Structures are given as structure tokens and as C-alpha cells.
TrEMBL record:
Source superkingdom: Bacteria
Transmembrane helix listed as a keyword: yes
Keywords linked to the UniProt accession: Membrane, Transmembrane, Transmembrane helix
EAL domain sequence ranges: 24-283
Protein name: Diguanylate cyclase (GGDEF)-like protein/PAS domain S-box-containing protein
Organism field: Pararhizobium capsulatum DSM 1112
Amino acid sequence: TRKRDGKNGMLVFDNSMLDTARERHEIEQYIEAGLKEDWFEAYLQPIVSLGDGRIAGFEALMRLNHPEKGILAPGKIIGIAEETGTIGRIGDRVLEKAISHLARISKLEGTEATYLAVNFSPLQFELTLPHKLAALLLKHHIAPSRIVVEITEAVLMLDNPDVHAVLKQLSEFGCRIALDDFGTGYSSLSYLNRFPVNIVKVDQSFTRSLSTGTNDVRRKSRMLIKGIRTISHQMGCSVVAEGIETTEQWEFLRKLGVDYGQGFLFSKPMPIDNMLTMLEMNSEAKSNTIA
Ligand code: C2E
Ligand code: MG
Ligand code: MG
Ligand code: MG
């Protein structure tokens, strides 16, 4: 954004704009360096069955691990990567890492059936995606049925024939499709009808509103979640709640019939080595449950 000065219409930038431009430029450089130096990582967060606390799967969450600056979260990266066109290369890198992580996890006892959920940006929905994914799965000996493709309505709103074709192919290939951040933005219920969606992920703002605000707000939040759950189940979709931070929220969501959940209560997203250690400790304790 540019600001027009009162005097003779000259364009001037205030310091905060300069900071934004500088930060943007820095991040563009981190992205390029990250691709070259292999700084992109796929952190994993467990997705838990709310009935019994068992781990059903893992969501891969992108991180840029800068050796000096530390960890950069996707919020800082994705928008810029989409604008500059690097998102495709980043996505490929993160996808391959995530699949190789699932292959390592699969070698542990009792984790053979766990799934991997991967987030995709609208720009990654190219006609080459199913083939690319198939090749990676073959290489790492992972069945397509263990992959969940997470998309937001931004993908579906494109209403692009290629997107339709890719979703259909992924679905026929055996992958499941999850609709992420459901209930925010323009989320149209008709998406559940028009696209091969298998999983609805209720946005974390709903989880938060279960335990904040007035009694009336909480009561209405419970009604909303119950409604989404009912429609989703009737459409043949399972339901995942995001952002579970307290046992109270877990209990509410379980009673509301939500199938799965993820959140800091169970585990923060973590690097593969930490995840393997945690899973090994669980299996020594003879339980695949968490928390
Ligand atoms: P998302 O897919 O909805 O992921 C959930 C976000 O909530 C993650 O943020 C996760 O770290 C955070 N989260 C999980 N549990 C809790 C909790 O209990 N409390 C709170 N406050 N937050 C929790 P993150 O990792 O910063 O990712 C943000 C978004 O960036 C993701 O939202 C997803 O839309 C996008 N994203 C992440 N990884 C990728 C990727 O590899 N490719 C693409 N295209 N997008 C990605
Ligand atoms: Mg997601
Ligand atoms: Mg989400
Ligand atoms: Mg989100």
C-alpha cells in the first residue's frame, strides 16, 4: 500500500510500510534459500479419536527452519509464496518429507493404519498432482487410502474444471478429501454435495467459543457444532475439531458426537524425531492413546 503525500502529490512511504516491504523481501529471500538449502520441514500433529484418545492420523504442517532466524510458520510464508509462484516447489518438498515421515512412523508397532493429512494451496491443484502424489506413495510404500488431502473453500471457489478433475482423480485413487476451516468464510454447504468430500474439519474458532463468552454464546456454539456434525454425518463425512486446548473442550466435543480432534491438549505440531520418540514411549506403555 502506498500513501500519497499532501504536498505536490509525491508518493511517500512511512516507516511501517518500509518495514513491511523489507520483511517481505527478507521472507522471499528465506524462501529461495530454504529451497536451496533444504530448510523446509513438515512438522506433525496427531489427530486423535475423541472417544478413546487413540491416534488416528497426523497433519503435516509446513515450517521453514532458518538456521539463524529460527522457525517460520506458514502464516508468514504461504501468502508470499503464492504471489511469487514458489508455493508449488515448497509444496512438493513438504509433501515428500511428510510422506517419508509417515513411512518411518509406519515401522512402529500399532501405527500401520494411521493416516497423513496434507494441506494444499489452490495453486497446487495442477493436473500433474495425482501423478506426482502416486509416484511419491509408490516410492515410500504408502497406500493411497492413508492420505488425506486438506483443502479450503478457496480451492473449491475457483470452480475450475481442472480442480474438479484433480479432486475426482485423487478420490478415485483412494485418497480422502478434507474440507479445512469449515464454518468460516463463505463455506457453502453445497460444497459437501458438489465435491467428493470425506472429512469436515470444524474451524478452531468453534472449539474456542465452547468455553469462552456468555452462557448464551456457549450454548449457541454447541448447537452450531451439533448441526454441522449432523449434516456432515448424514452426508457420509466424518468430523474433526481443530484447536482443542482444554479437557473441557474435549469433553464437550465428544458429547456433541464429533469423531476426531487435534490441538495443543493432545500435542503441539512437532518434528518427526520428537514424534517418533513420543510414539515409542506410548507403545512401551502399551497404549496408542495420548493425553
Ligand atoms: P490449518 O490447516 O487449519 O492448521 C491448523 C493450525 O492450527 C496450524 O497452524 C496448527 O499449528 C494450529 N493449531 C493446532 N492445534 C492448535 C491449538 O490447540 N490451538 C491453536 N491456537 N492452534 C492450534 P500453522 O501450523 O501455523 O498453520 C497455519 C495454516 O497454514 C494451516 O491451517 C494451513 O492452512 C496452512 N498450512 C500449513 N502447512 C501447509 C502446507 O504444507 N501447505 C499449504 N498450502 N498450507 C499449509
Ligand atoms: Mg489443515
Ligand atoms: Mg484448519
Ligand atoms: Mg486454519
